[in-house]
Amino acid sequence: MGARVRQFLTSWAGHYAVLLLVSLDVACIFADFLISLFICEQRCGKDLDATENLVEAQEALKVVSLVFSCLFMAELMACVFGFGLNYFKSKFHCFDAAVIVAGFVIDVCLKGVLEEAGSIVVILRLWRVFKIIEEFGSGAEEQMNALSERVEQLEAENKQLKTHLEAIQATSRGG
Prior knowledge:
single chain, 6 helices
């Protein structure tokens, strides 16, 4: 089972799934930020009726943020299950795990002023974009390694076939 999880996490489908989740999370973060700015602008103009729908949208985005935090925690647990504690040998993975756990704790536990103080994690969540870039790089490296091995195998096979063909041609000329 762990091998299957590891295979999925290192596959292109796994990379694209994480990329999709991170992209949607970043889009929601930016939407929340823009809504906050618009609400602030409307309240300064004393147009409180216009902010009611925006506040509801912001509350919906908080629920969506919690869903993403849960999905990222599930991804982290899958990585630990698939790769074992070796997953944490990489400093990058340790930092990524800290960002995921901190984001989850803030989304689940902190409300009000503490939630606003914890919004620094929003910036760290953007770090996940860099994780995706790193994952694509490592995925491409793994694919290149596999292709290099295959090329070496084919070159060795080609050399054997050439030797065999030359032997057959030499036999047919001599006979």
